[in-house]
Amino acid sequence: MLEGFFDLHTHTTASDGTLSPEQLIRCCLEAGLSGVGITDHDTMAAIPEAIQLAASSGLTVVPGIEISTEQHGKEIHILGYYCSPNSPSLNQMMSEVRDARKSRMELIVANLRNAGVDITLEQLVFHIGNEAVGRPHIARALVAMGAAESVQDAFDRYLVRGKPGYVPRYKLDPIVAVKQILAAGGVPVLAHPGLIGDDSVIEALIVAGLKGIEVWYPQHTNEQVEHYAEMADSLGLIPTGGSDFHGSGE
Ligand code: AMP
Ligand code: ZN
Ligand code: FE
Ligand code: FE
Hints:
By secondary structure, the chain is an alpha/beta fold. It has helices at residues 21-30, 47-54, 88-114, 121-124, 135-144, 151-159, 174-183, 201-208, 222-235; strands at residues 6-10, 35-38, 60-71, 74-81, 187-190, 212-216, 238-241. β1, α1 (21-30) and β2 (35-38) form a beta-alpha-beta unit.
């Protein structure tokens, strides 16, 4: 039985967070947490190191992953806790997604250059994650080179849908993600449902084996927290909470 305050949604430098696993653990200890779920995008690379580093500190590390999927044009993120690191099918799927992330990054850079932004792949090297690259890395590079004032400004000007640096991600079906997490012995949880803006997807996810729903999330309004807490209660889903921490300076 785990007790105390846990933040069940965080990112490290294995994906698009700015803190290494070691720095994240120190940060969680300073914040007085009992445990942290590390849920990097499309990789579990930070987990072994994090578990080892936290072992003597009293902080519990909950191994996790966040899988980005899409359905009917809506972004749906599935969190998976306690997946086996040795699941061939989950590892294969994640490896394909990470390769696609690299190709996408090259395309984003090419598109930005066409739009007159003098960014190069070499400049990005200092910003990219160890395993899974994403738009926040490009946003930070754009800030560092003076093309944007902040990460948010970089997103708004270049990286969101409709802007020159927007390139869609590899398309994964959320049902497939839920099933892969289950097949890897993990617990699938729907991340930040309030950001989807459409609850109709949830029923099919439950049929596929969804076990939990992220109720407490910084961008959820009080009404959304209440709504999803009630939904979790009535549908027998585990209610979870997480900050989606990506590190300082964002
Ligand atoms: P990617 O996986 O490359 O599409 O990047 C997704 C990540 O970018 C998310 O986890 C957020 O950290 C960040 N992000 C996505 N949309 C925005 C936005 N509109 N403004 C700022 N950050 C964003
Ligand atoms: Zn992220
Ligand atoms: Fe997410
Ligand atoms: Fe996240």
